[in-house]
From TrEMBL:
<dbReference type="InterPro" id="IPR011990">
    <property type="entry name" value="TPR-like_helical_dom_sf"/>
</dbReference>
<dbReference type="InterPro" id="IPR019734">
    <property type="entry name" value="TPR_rpt"/>
</dbReference>
<protein>
    <recommendedName>
        <fullName>Tetratricopeptide repeat protein 5</fullName>
    </recommendedName>
</protein>
Length: 324
Protein backbone atom coordinates (compact mmCIF):
# COMPACT_ATOMS: atom_id res chain seq x y z
CA UNK A 1 0.00 0.00 0.00
CA UNK A 2 2.78 2.37 0.86
CA UNK A 3 4.32 1.78 -2.59
CA UNK A 4 1.08 2.67 -4.33
CA UNK A 5 0.69 5.71 -2.07
CA UNK A 6 4.16 6.88 -3.03
CA UNK A 7 3.39 6.39 -6.74
CA UNK A 8 0.17 8.40 -6.51
CA UNK A 9 2.01 11.10 -4.57
CA UNK A 10 4.57 11.40 -7.38
CA UNK A 11 1.81 11.73 -9.99
CA UNK A 12 0.12 14.36 -7.90
CA UNK A 13 3.42 16.22 -7.51
CA UNK A 14 4.00 16.18 -11.28
CA UNK A 15 0.50 17.44 -11.97
CA UNK A 16 1.01 20.08 -9.32
CA UNK A 17 4.13 21.36 -11.10
CA UNK A 18 2.26 21.56 -14.40
CA UNK A 19 -0.61 23.34 -12.68
CA UNK A 20 1.79 25.82 -11.11
CA UNK A 21 3.46 26.38 -14.47
CA UNK A 22 0.08 27.11 -16.06
CA UNK A 23 -0.75 29.57 -13.29
CA UNK A 24 2.67 31.22 -13.66
CA UNK A 25 2.03 31.68 -17.39
CA UNK A 26 -1.43 33.11 -16.73
CA UNK A 27 -0.02 35.47 -14.10
CA UNK A 28 2.61 36.60 -16.59
CA UNK A 29 -0.10 37.62 -19.04
CA UNK A 30 -2.09 39.33 -16.32
CA UNK A 31 0.97 41.48 -15.64
CA UNK A 32 1.27 42.21 -19.35
CA UNK A 33 -2.35 43.35 -19.54
CA UNK A 34 -2.58 45.33 -16.30
CA UNK A 35 0.87 46.66 -15.35
CA UNK A 36 1.61 50.03 -16.97
CA UNK A 37 4.29 51.97 -15.06
CA UNK A 38 5.29 55.46 -16.15
CA UNK A 39 8.57 54.09 -17.51
CA UNK A 40 7.77 51.42 -20.16
CA UNK A 41 11.13 49.76 -19.58
CA UNK A 42 10.04 48.91 -16.03
CA UNK A 43 7.22 46.87 -17.52
CA UNK A 44 9.59 44.93 -19.78
CA UNK A 45 11.93 44.29 -16.85
CA UNK A 46 9.04 42.99 -14.77
CA UNK A 47 7.92 40.68 -17.58
CA UNK A 48 11.47 39.42 -18.04
CA UNK A 49 11.81 38.62 -14.35
CA UNK A 50 8.47 36.82 -14.17
CA UNK A 51 9.04 34.91 -17.42
CA UNK A 52 12.44 33.67 -16.17
CA UNK A 53 10.78 32.41 -12.99
CA UNK A 54 8.01 30.71 -14.98
CA UNK A 55 10.53 29.02 -17.29
CA UNK A 56 12.54 27.74 -14.34
CA UNK A 57 9.39 26.28 -12.84
CA UNK A 58 8.53 24.62 -16.16
CA UNK A 59 12.03 23.20 -16.53
CA UNK A 60 11.71 21.59 -13.09
CA UNK A 61 9.36 19.00 -14.64
CA UNK A 62 11.44 15.79 -14.92
CA UNK A 63 12.41 14.71 -18.47
CA UNK A 64 10.64 11.38 -18.06
CA UNK A 65 7.40 13.30 -17.48
CA UNK A 66 7.67 15.05 -20.85
CA UNK A 67 7.95 11.98 -23.08
CA UNK A 68 4.32 11.10 -23.74
CA UNK A 69 2.65 13.06 -26.53
CA UNK A 70 0.13 14.89 -24.32
CA UNK A 71 2.84 15.71 -21.77
CA UNK A 72 5.23 17.02 -24.40
CA UNK A 73 2.54 19.10 -26.14
CA UNK A 74 1.62 20.81 -22.87
CA UNK A 75 5.28 21.48 -22.08
CA UNK A 76 5.93 22.97 -25.54
CA UNK A 77 2.74 25.05 -25.39
CA UNK A 78 3.56 26.58 -22.01
CA UNK A 79 7.16 27.29 -22.98
CA UNK A 80 6.08 28.98 -26.20
CA UNK A 81 3.39 30.97 -24.42
CA UNK A 82 5.83 32.24 -21.79
CA UNK A 83 8.42 33.23 -24.38
CA UNK A 84 5.80 35.04 -26.47
CA UNK A 85 4.66 37.44 -23.73
CA UNK A 86 6.83 40.26 -25.08
CA UNK A 87 5.70 42.68 -27.84
CA UNK A 88 8.37 41.58 -30.32
CA UNK A 89 8.26 38.45 -32.47
CA UNK A 90 10.13 35.50 -30.96
CA UNK A 91 11.24 32.69 -33.28
CA UNK A 92 11.88 30.31 -30.39
CA UNK A 93 8.33 30.85 -29.14
CA UNK A 94 6.94 30.04 -32.59
CA UNK A 95 9.01 26.83 -32.75
CA UNK A 96 7.72 25.59 -29.39
CA UNK A 97 4.11 26.46 -30.20
CA UNK A 98 4.38 24.78 -33.61
CA UNK A 99 5.59 21.61 -31.91
CA UNK A 100 2.69 21.80 -29.46
CA UNK A 101 -0.02 21.87 -32.15
CA UNK A 102 1.70 19.10 -34.12
CA UNK A 103 1.75 16.89 -31.04
CA UNK A 104 -1.81 17.79 -30.07
CA UNK A 105 -3.84 19.46 -32.88
CA UNK A 106 -6.86 19.78 -30.56
CA UNK A 107 -5.01 22.13 -28.18
CA UNK A 108 -6.97 25.29 -28.98
CA UNK A 109 -5.00 27.58 -26.66
CA UNK A 110 -1.77 26.60 -28.40
CA UNK A 111 -3.29 27.51 -31.78
CA UNK A 112 -4.35 30.84 -30.30
CA UNK A 113 -0.83 31.58 -29.02
CA UNK A 114 0.73 30.44 -32.29
CA UNK A 115 -1.55 32.76 -34.25
CA UNK A 116 -0.63 35.69 -32.01
CA UNK A 117 3.08 34.88 -32.35
CA UNK A 118 2.95 34.67 -36.16
CA UNK A 119 0.91 37.88 -36.28
CA UNK A 120 3.85 39.69 -34.68
CA UNK A 121 6.10 38.91 -37.62
CA UNK A 122 3.52 40.31 -40.04
CA UNK A 123 2.20 37.07 -41.55
CA UNK A 124 -1.47 37.93 -41.11
CA UNK A 125 -2.78 35.22 -43.45
CA UNK A 126 -1.00 32.44 -41.55
CA UNK A 127 -2.14 33.93 -38.25
CA UNK A 128 -5.75 33.83 -39.47
CA UNK A 129 -5.30 30.21 -40.52
CA UNK A 130 -4.22 29.39 -36.95
CA UNK A 131 -7.31 31.04 -35.49
CA UNK A 132 -9.57 29.34 -38.03
CA UNK A 133 -8.04 25.94 -37.29
CA UNK A 134 -8.49 26.56 -33.57
CA UNK A 135 -12.17 27.37 -34.06
CA UNK A 136 -12.63 24.18 -36.06
CA UNK A 137 -11.93 22.33 -32.79
CA UNK A 138 -14.85 24.10 -31.12
CA UNK A 139 -16.21 27.60 -30.35
CA UNK A 140 -13.97 29.79 -28.20
CA UNK A 141 -14.67 33.40 -27.23
CA UNK A 142 -10.99 34.32 -26.86
CA UNK A 143 -10.10 33.01 -30.30
CA UNK A 144 -13.12 34.73 -31.86
CA UNK A 145 -12.01 38.02 -30.30
CA UNK A 146 -8.49 37.63 -31.64
CA UNK A 147 -9.83 36.74 -35.08
CA UNK A 148 -12.04 39.81 -34.99
CA UNK A 149 -9.05 41.96 -34.02
CA UNK A 150 -6.88 40.42 -36.74
CA UNK A 151 -9.52 41.08 -39.39
CA UNK A 152 -9.54 44.77 -38.47
CA UNK A 153 -5.79 44.78 -38.98
CA UNK A 154 -6.15 42.99 -42.32
CA UNK A 155 -8.78 45.52 -43.42
CA UNK A 156 -6.31 48.41 -43.27
CA UNK A 157 -5.51 49.52 -46.81
CA UNK A 158 -7.48 46.69 -48.44
CA UNK A 159 -9.87 47.25 -51.35
CA UNK A 160 -12.74 45.53 -49.54
CA UNK A 161 -12.12 47.20 -46.20
CA UNK A 162 -15.77 47.61 -45.23
CA UNK A 163 -16.52 43.96 -45.96
CA UNK A 164 -13.61 42.69 -43.84
CA UNK A 165 -14.55 45.00 -40.97
CA UNK A 166 -18.10 43.66 -41.11
CA UNK A 167 -16.65 40.15 -40.69
CA UNK A 168 -14.83 41.49 -37.65
CA UNK A 169 -18.12 42.75 -36.21
CA UNK A 170 -19.80 39.38 -36.80
CA UNK A 171 -17.03 37.43 -35.09
CA UNK A 172 -17.15 39.85 -32.16
CA UNK A 173 -20.88 39.20 -31.83
CA UNK A 174 -20.26 35.44 -31.92
CA UNK A 175 -17.85 35.79 -29.01
CA UNK A 176 -20.48 37.65 -26.97
CA UNK A 177 -23.05 34.98 -27.75
CA UNK A 178 -20.78 32.47 -25.99
CA UNK A 179 -20.57 34.59 -22.83
CA UNK A 180 -22.78 37.67 -22.66
CA UNK A 181 -21.14 38.84 -19.43
CA UNK A 182 -17.55 38.77 -20.71
CA UNK A 183 -16.23 42.33 -20.69
CA UNK A 184 -13.38 41.66 -23.10
CA UNK A 185 -15.81 40.42 -25.75
CA UNK A 186 -17.92 43.56 -25.39
CA UNK A 187 -14.78 45.69 -25.55
CA UNK A 188 -13.79 43.93 -28.75
CA UNK A 189 -17.23 44.58 -30.25
CA UNK A 190 -16.91 48.26 -29.33
CA UNK A 191 -13.60 48.40 -31.18
CA UNK A 192 -15.14 46.65 -34.18
CA UNK A 193 -17.99 49.19 -34.40
CA UNK A 194 -15.54 52.08 -33.97
CA UNK A 195 -13.41 50.73 -36.83
CA UNK A 196 -16.59 50.29 -38.88
CA UNK A 197 -17.42 53.95 -38.29
CA UNK A 198 -14.14 55.05 -39.85
CA UNK A 199 -14.13 52.39 -42.58
CA UNK A 200 -17.53 53.55 -43.87
CA UNK A 201 -16.61 57.23 -44.12
CA UNK A 202 -16.92 58.47 -40.51
CA UNK A 203 -20.47 59.78 -41.00
CA UNK A 204 -22.75 57.11 -39.49
CA UNK A 205 -23.18 58.12 -35.84
CA UNK A 206 -25.22 54.97 -35.24
CA UNK A 207 -21.92 53.08 -35.41
CA UNK A 208 -20.55 55.35 -32.70
CA UNK A 209 -23.61 54.79 -30.53
CA UNK A 210 -23.31 51.02 -31.01
CA UNK A 211 -19.64 51.25 -30.08
CA UNK A 212 -20.42 53.31 -26.99
CA UNK A 213 -23.09 50.83 -25.87
CA UNK A 214 -20.64 47.95 -26.24
CA UNK A 215 -18.00 49.79 -24.19
CA UNK A 216 -20.57 50.51 -21.48
CA UNK A 217 -21.41 46.81 -21.32
CA UNK A 218 -17.69 46.03 -21.09
CA UNK A 219 -17.37 48.35 -18.09
CA UNK A 220 -19.89 46.20 -16.20
CA UNK A 221 -17.25 43.49 -15.97
CA UNK A 222 -15.01 44.35 -13.01
CA UNK A 223 -12.07 42.64 -14.69
CA UNK A 224 -12.04 45.39 -17.33
CA UNK A 225 -11.26 48.10 -14.77
CA UNK A 226 -7.56 47.44 -15.40
CA UNK A 227 -7.84 47.94 -19.18
CA UNK A 228 -6.71 51.50 -20.02
CA UNK A 229 -7.53 51.06 -23.71
CA UNK A 230 -11.21 50.60 -22.85
CA UNK A 231 -11.37 54.03 -21.22
CA UNK A 232 -9.27 55.61 -23.98
CA UNK A 233 -11.33 54.22 -26.86
CA UNK A 234 -14.59 55.04 -25.10
CA UNK A 235 -13.32 58.61 -24.69
CA UNK A 236 -12.56 58.76 -28.43
CA UNK A 237 -16.16 57.80 -29.19
CA UNK A 238 -17.48 60.43 -26.77
CA UNK A 239 -15.25 63.04 -28.40
CA UNK A 240 -16.75 62.29 -31.83
CA UNK A 241 -20.23 62.38 -30.29
CA UNK A 242 -19.29 65.79 -28.79
CA UNK A 243 -19.73 64.50 -25.25
CA UNK A 244 -16.66 66.46 -24.22
CA UNK A 245 -17.02 66.12 -20.46
CA UNK A 246 -17.32 62.34 -20.70
CA UNK A 247 -14.43 62.26 -23.16
CA UNK A 248 -12.15 64.16 -20.79
CA UNK A 249 -13.17 61.94 -17.87
CA UNK A 250 -12.33 58.90 -19.98
CA UNK A 251 -8.96 60.27 -21.04
CA UNK A 252 -8.21 61.05 -17.41
CA UNK A 253 -8.96 57.46 -16.37
CA UNK A 254 -6.87 56.09 -19.25
CA UNK A 255 -3.94 58.36 -18.40
CA UNK A 256 -3.97 57.28 -14.76
CA UNK A 257 -3.95 53.60 -15.73
CA UNK A 258 -1.37 53.88 -18.52
CA UNK A 259 0.66 57.11 -18.88
CA UNK A 260 2.08 55.76 -22.13
CA UNK A 261 -1.23 56.19 -23.98
CA UNK A 262 -0.57 59.94 -24.42
CA UNK A 263 -4.15 60.75 -23.43
CA UNK A 264 -2.96 64.27 -22.62
CA UNK A 265 -2.62 64.96 -26.36
CA UNK A 266 -6.30 64.16 -26.83
CA UNK A 267 -7.17 66.39 -23.87
CA UNK A 268 -5.29 69.29 -25.47
CA UNK A 269 -7.25 68.81 -28.70
CA UNK A 270 -10.53 69.09 -26.79
CA UNK A 271 -9.37 72.10 -24.77
CA UNK A 272 -8.27 73.87 -27.97
CA UNK A 273 -11.66 73.15 -29.52
CA UNK A 274 -13.44 74.45 -26.45
CA UNK A 275 -11.33 77.63 -26.56
CA UNK A 276 -12.37 78.22 -30.17
CA UNK A 277 -16.03 77.66 -29.35
CA UNK A 278 -15.77 80.06 -26.41
CA UNK A 279 -14.27 82.73 -28.68
CA UNK A 280 -17.12 82.30 -31.17
CA UNK A 281 -19.72 82.67 -28.42
CA UNK A 282 -18.03 85.80 -27.09
CA UNK A 283 -18.16 87.39 -30.54
CA UNK A 284 -21.80 86.38 -30.90
CA UNK A 285 -22.61 87.78 -27.47
CA UNK A 286 -21.08 91.12 -28.40
CA UNK A 287 -23.02 91.23 -31.64
CA UNK A 288 -26.23 90.58 -29.70
CA UNK A 289 -25.62 93.61 -27.46
CA UNK A 290 -25.68 95.96 -30.46
CA UNK A 291 -28.88 94.66 -32.03
CA UNK A 292 -32.33 96.13 -31.48
CA UNK A 293 -35.49 94.49 -30.24
CA UNK A 294 -35.89 92.75 -33.61
CA UNK A 295 -32.99 90.40 -32.90
CA UNK A 296 -33.33 87.22 -34.98
CA UNK A 297 -34.49 84.13 -33.13
CA UNK A 298 -31.16 82.36 -33.83
CA UNK A 299 -29.26 85.08 -31.95
CA UNK A 300 -31.67 85.33 -29.05
CA UNK A 301 -31.41 81.61 -28.46
CA UNK A 302 -27.62 81.84 -28.41
CA UNK A 303 -27.76 83.43 -24.95
CA UNK A 304 -29.29 80.26 -23.46
CA UNK A 305 -26.77 78.16 -25.36
CA UNK A 306 -24.01 80.32 -23.96
CA UNK A 307 -25.20 79.82 -20.37
CA UNK A 308 -25.22 76.05 -20.78
CA UNK A 309 -21.90 76.13 -22.56
CA UNK A 310 -20.18 78.16 -19.83
CA UNK A 311 -21.45 75.76 -17.17
CA UNK A 312 -20.08 72.82 -19.13
CA UNK A 313 -16.85 74.71 -19.78
CA UNK A 314 -16.17 75.14 -16.05
CA UNK A 315 -16.61 71.41 -15.49
CA UNK A 316 -14.44 70.55 -18.48
CA UNK A 317 -11.63 72.84 -17.41
CA UNK A 318 -11.75 71.33 -13.91
CA UNK A 319 -11.14 67.87 -15.38
CA UNK A 320 -8.56 68.98 -17.93
CA UNK A 321 -6.52 70.85 -15.33
CA UNK A 322 -5.74 67.51 -13.69
CA UNK A 323 -4.16 66.22 -16.88
CA UNK A 324 -2.54 69.07 -18.77
Amino acid sequence: MSGHGGEFSTIDDDNDIIGKAKEAADQLYRIRDTYFPRNPQDRISKLQLESDLALRLLDSIPLEKRRLSHQRSMFEYLRGKILDVFPEYNKEAEDHLSKAVKLNPSLGDAWLCLGNCIWKKGDLTSAKNCFTLALSKGPNKNILCQLSMLERKMAQGSENQAEIVEESVQHAKEAIALDVKDGNSWYNLGNAYLTCFFATGAWDHNKLLQSLKAYQNAEKDKRMECNPDLYYNCAIVNRYLENYERALTGFEAASLKDPGLNAIDEVKKIVNLIDKLESVLKVESLSCSYTNSHTPLSLSLSYEVQIRFKKALREIMLISSKLV
